Amino acid sequence: MTTSRAVRPIPAAHRLVLGAAAVTTGLMAGTFYVFACAVMPALGRSDDRTFIEVMRNINDVIENPVFFAGFFGALILTAVAAWQQRRCPGPRPWLLAALAVYAVAFLLTSGVNVPLNHALADAGDPARLADPAAVRDRFEDAWNAWNVVRAVLCTAALALLLRAGSAGAADRAAQESAYLASEAAGSRASR
Questions:
Q1: Buried (b) or exposed (e) across 125-146, using 16+ Cβ within 10 A?
Q2: What is d(CA 162, CA 19) in angstroms, rounded to the nearest whole number?
């Protein structure tokens, strides 16, 4: 007896990719969340030169392989998970929604926050700035506002990925139930 495509279990590799997408997206949501609720409020208490110097240092050190693995990994792994689940009606819409939401956060980071970081770096040595308050004013409020938006987007993408995982589990349970019911019917018919 052969099983139909509908009752084949989802491969472990597909579940692993979905799990990795959720972990990397969660790491990015956490990164932006920590900036919103701790790092930036703490820096907000600093004088202008200290604020600029520390933020420039953060921007320098955050560009590292660990951060990029999460930042790019969340996008790539979510896209791969959506492709892998292309024939699974349960998780697929949730994965596509997660991909779209994270892509907006990714583009926002690349198109708004990173250019603001570069402008802060291009302002020059904080110790030699004629008007550090003006430099800070051009950076701080805009960066903070868009950081909150990307934190919310990444958190929403994580929630969508978790929902995709539960939809996949529900699909697997339904498939197993249908398979067991067909086996039982076949067993009764052969008696």
A1: ebeebeebeebbeebbeebbeb
A2: 9
